[in-house]
Amino acid sequence: MKAFNNLTDFSNEEIQALIELAVRLDSNPEPEALKGKVLSLLFLSPSLRTLASFQAAMTRLGGGSFVISPEMSIHGIESRPGIVMDGAAAEHIREAVPVIASYGDAIGIRAFAERKNIEADMQENEFSALTDLIDTPYINMESAMNHPCQNLADWKTMDDLNVPSNGGKFVLSWAYHPLALPLAVPASTLHMAAKRGMDVTVLRPEGFELPAALMEKANTIAAATGGSIKETDQRAEAMEDAHIIYAKSWSSTRHYGDKLNDQKLREQHLDWCVDEPWFENARNDCRFMHCLPVRRGVVVADNILDGPRSVVIAEARNRMLAQMAVLHQMLGNQK
Ligand code: CP
Fold first, then answer.
1. How far is the centre of ligand 1, averaged over its atoms, from the C-alpha of 185 (Å)?
2. Which atom of ligand 1 is nearest to the CA of 46?
3. What is the pLDDT of residue 334?
4. Is 57 helix (H, G, I), strand (E, B) or coil?
5. Contacts (Cβ under 8 Å, ≥6 apart) of 261
């Protein structure tokens, strides 16, 4: 495997093989599988789970890792092309990224969306500018529109819970958050659930529609897997017979890059905080999923997070197992 960039680059059989490998590595550890291998981890955006789970994954497989982020005691990094570097930044990504990559056998890169121009973010301009600088295998640890490690872990979490693929009902719901967050998780989660063959409903207030190109891609995937895609602002209709509600906040697509108008619009939806009444029409065993971090009492009520519906801790642990499978396939001795 040369790149783990987007879950939809892989066939359902390849995804299932990764999940089977993750299950196997959990029950039958291979502490020498990646002995002597090094994973470089470049975080240009903050993290808890991705940072810790990649390091834990490499250690459990017998390899090592190192982390570089702008928060560390490193030279200031410039990313703008063609800039005269007479300001604070002493180093350009054009040197920094290939150097970091050269110390490892593979590199993980996290760079969130700029959130200024939706077309540029949809085209993954920033992430591509980084991966174009390297020829080592790489893992997308979250870019403007993708979070494949989260998607693989979430797929596994639903398998662990015996949530059906075809016939399983998945509600991807916008939730209130005080900040305009990136589209990476909602976009890639929509595609993951469609690829799993689920009946997916995107539940969101007006002004927070997912971009048409993302919905079109979801429809194409669903047509091939036997799933379906709907979009609504009607909560009761969306939640009917749901197996899963996956909550996430994202930027207003009507006011993308316009913080003031985004804020004015989102503040009209403070009541989009997932709580027990949301589940009235859902299946009794409907589960709550979230990639974390999550704001308690803002995105979701404490009683949901602390109650039996929540599987957020299992999702987070599955990040480590899913990434072990990816690293094993990317760096292990292939037969
Ligand atoms: N879910 C996730 O990617 O968490 P972090 O941002 O903490 O890595």
1. 10
2. 6
3. 57
4. helix
5. 252, 254, 255
Q: How far apart are CA 109 and CA 131, in angstroms?
A: 8
What's the CA gap between 230 and 219, in Å, rounded?
Answer: 9
255-260 contact pairs (CB < 8 A, 24+): 255/207, 256/115, 256/117, 256/118, 257/115, 257/116, 257/117, 257/118, 259/180
Q: Is 48 in the pocket of ligand 1 (CB under 6 A)?
A: yes
What distance in angstroms lies between residue 291's CA and the mean position of ligand 1's atoms?
A: 7
Which residue in 134, 144, 168, 167 sits closest to 154, CA to CA? 168
Residue minimizing CA distance to atom 3 of ligand 1: 50
Can you list the alpha helix ranges (DSSP code H) found in 28-117? 49-60, 93-102
Amino acid 335: pLDDT? 47
The structure tokens listed for 199 are 């009946």
Low-confidence residues of the chain: pLDDT under 70: 334-335
pLDDT for the residue numbered 268: 98
Taking only the tens place, the pLDDT of each residue in 179-212 is: 999 999 999 999 999 999 999 999 999 999 999 9
Atom of ligand 1 nearest to the CA of 50: 8
Which residues, in sequence order, are bridge partners of residue 65? 39
Could you give all domains of the chain from N- to C-terminal order, each with its CATH number?
A: 3-147+317-331 (3.40.50.1370), 162-310 (3.40.50.1370)
pTM: 0.97
